[in-house]
Specification:
mainly alpha; elongated; 5 helices; about 140 residues
């Protein structure tokens, strides 16, 4: 059963990370258009990505990850504490994206496309940190 949960976890992480990397890219392009049909298309794409892919994937990643951590006794391992912190930061990034999405939905975005290009890098750096910690377990 553990390997099935692990496979589910990997699929959920891939889906969640795809959204965390793609949604800010949509924001980059959305920030450069004014109100109108193109903006409405971006709103639909962003909302569906966040609600139907990213958020369910995050929930499954968290649930399966906590199950595996408990099963493996990882909560006592120092490397796991660092991983957990990085995952909490990824979760914060997810909810920050949700707040930005609500701003776009209300035509109230206050950020430039450059801002979205910068925040697009944050999940990438956090993901690299998680992968290194989980694979190398340096401490």
């Amino acid at each position: 059963m553990y390997l099935w949960i692990k496979a589910l976890h990997v699929v959920a992480i891939i889906s969640w990370m795809a959204g965390l990397l793609y949604l800010p890219r949509l924001f980059v392009y959305h920030a450069d258009v004014g109100p109108g049909p193109q903006s409405e298309t971006f709103k639909v794409m962003e909302r569906r990505l966040y609600r139907y892919i990213m958020t369910p994937a995050m929930v499954v990643a968290w649930a399966s990850g906590l199950f595996m951590a408990a099963d493996a006794g990882a909560f006592q391992q120092p490397w796991f504490h660092v991983k957990a912190l990085l995952v909490l930061l990824l979760t914060g990034s997810h909810f920050h994206d949700g707040a930005l999405l609500r701003g776009f939905a209300q035509d109230a975005n206050v950020h430039s496309s450059r801002y979205f290009r910068v925040i697009n890098e944050i999940p990438t750096l956090l993901m690299i940190g998680v992968v290194v910690i989980v694979i190398v377990k340096p401490f």
